[in-house]
Design a protein that fits this description.
This protein is 31% helix and 30% strand. By secondary structure, the chain is α+β, with helices and mostly antiparallel strands. A two-stranded parallel ribbon has the order 1-2. Strands 3-4 form a two-stranded antiparallel ribbon. Strand 1, helix 1 and strand 2 form a beta-alpha-beta unit. The relative contact order is 0.27. It holds the Pfam family Tautomerase.
Length: 61
């Protein structure tokens, strides 16, 4: 039973998340020969104030 976690900045629409879950599920199912029913996708959203890169908070970019 593959479990996939996608971490991304908040702000995507429900439609975008739905498409992401659908496509990630298909890719994992095909790649590891697992039934789609056994693939679970988690989306963890981060606020721009909770994440930084190269010493700069994303909210400040």
């Amino acid at each position: 039973m593959p479990y996939v976690t996608v971490k991304m900045l908040a702000g995507r629409t429900v439609e975008q998340k739905r498409a992401l879950i659908e496509k990630v599920t298909a890719a994992v199912s095909e790649s590891v020969d697992a039934p789609k029913e056994n693939v679970t996708v988690f989306i963890e959203e981060m606020e721009k104030t909770d994440y930084g890169q190269a010493g700069v908070m994303f909210a400040d970019k």
